[in-house]
Amino acid sequence: MREDYTPMWESLGMDLSAHDALLGVLEQGYRDIYLAQKNRPEGMGYFDFVMSEVHGLRIKELLDEKKQNRKIIGSYCVFVPEEIVLAGGATLIGLCSGADFAVEEVEKHLPRNTCSLIKSSFGFKLGKVCPYLECADMIVGENTCDGKKKAYEIFAGMVDNLYVMDLPQVKSTQGRALLKEEFERFKTAVEELTGNKITVEALKEGIKVVNAKRAALHRLAILRKADPAPISGLDALLANQVFFYDNPARFTESVNKICDELEVRIKENQGAFPSKTPRILISGCPMAVPNWKLPWIIETSGAVIVGEEACVGERGTRNLTDDSGQSLDELMEAFTDRYFKVDCAIFTPNQERSDHIVDMAQAYGANGVIHYGLQFCQPYIMESIPVENTLENLGIPCMRIETDYGMEDVGQLKTRVEAFIEQISD
Ligand code: BJ8
Question: Is the C-beta atom of 381 inside 6 A of ligand 1?
Fold first, then answer.
């Protein structure tokens, strides 16, 4: 029988009945979407376990870390460098939320036409249903899109430990200098929070741990080039989602284990879907847990997803950091270089992202690209038009979808996705 975590949630000041309702929906969704899949790799059992304990065991581990005086830092963006957090002797967890919650309450603080991701983050705070948020010693926001920038001004009145990182919007020399300065400022903030001075050795170790995590996901991504695809897009997405809050070493080991299994599957010509199933690349806004709506629609409509051009996906994990530097400054330079390559749509101009989408579509043998934009997300929706033009000029079919976290449009989306899959199957 599963442990009763009620006293733990109570100690975090959570709203227990609202939280029960959330967990009920999450468990049901997981059963219907994940456990209903066929031909899953056995190694996904680990991620099923992680999800069944998502607000239980992992939170207990984090609270145990806190008892040992280790600080927990929460973040909403892949620009927050985990390397620095680990080097400071703290733990980083992702806080982005993928479900609507307390919408009426949220709309008292934010305009209705705000993207679901931002609204969801507020809903989880206002509804007191996120134990990660409640156990964080520091919450890091970032000046990325206008929605987030302004939302953090309001969020600062709801939490007492918000730290906001500034970010460049242009990939210029000045932009890179700003990013490095902000990483230096963040390093000082982590040192102040933890009381630990970050040393060259600690930073090298932090880089090594994070590189290993990312390398495991690169390995997984490369295996998805095979036909038949050895793993579903839903399962691969889950691994990318769990990346943000699992223990790093355990995560790396679990992903590598799945990769070992997938290598055998590929040799034996086994797939999650039959060979020649139409292959889709998803591109656009990040999908945080439990946002599985669009991938579920795609993979129950006759196609398989072979890659995610998103921050929960390859955009977030693409590059490793050079760890050969011998001084703090050389190491800070090295990961400034690494993070500066992240091609979020907040950057202008942002041709790199279109180029990456083309590269990924070709490398993964995608028959088409589905661009996923959250409603009211200006950066990604605006960028989706040039992205579509670039792809179609190269003969790569593209469909642009705008949606939110609601389920009202599932029927309509399914009809559109089925028509697109039929078109790319010809
Ligand atoms: S680096 S993608 S994680 S900012 S969906 S809140 S952009 S209006 S999430 Fe992101 Fe960092 Fe960029 Fe990645 Fe705004 Fe759009 Fe909402 Fe978004």
Answer: no
